[in-house]
Amino acid sequence: MSFKITTLLVLCAGLAALAPVKSAPTSHLLNVRHDGHDDAPTSTSAVPAFVKQNGLDAQKLNAQFKTIKPTDSCQDGQMACVTSAFAQCVSGKWALSPCAATLSCYALPLVNKPGTSIVCDTQADTLLRFEAAGVTGGSAGDAPTTPTSPA
Question: Residue 20's pLDDT is what?
Fold first, then answer.
């Protein structure tokens, strides 16, 4: 009898591992997608229009994130960066997950398809990703534009 139960449990565990997993829905205000590879482009060719739009969308999200407080209400499933920590809305309240000591939370542009991703990253890498996306103004679009190479 125990052999049948063990076999059944192993079979159920195998099927559960193969089942597709879907993420929680996000609100329309902070609609975040992470559907693909998000490394910065390495070629020097022109930036595709959707990558630039992703950069602008990520800047808009980062600007919105600056206004969110840990005590603000939210809609279940929403994700954001709150006080430099990754945050997910659970039961109408922000649940914060701090980034590692040298990292902060940012929305970053995807480079292979439309969308953005919320990640913990260094400020330097974040700025390089926005530059690679062809947008100026830093992570929130509000930084002064300075040349990155000597004139």
Answer: 46
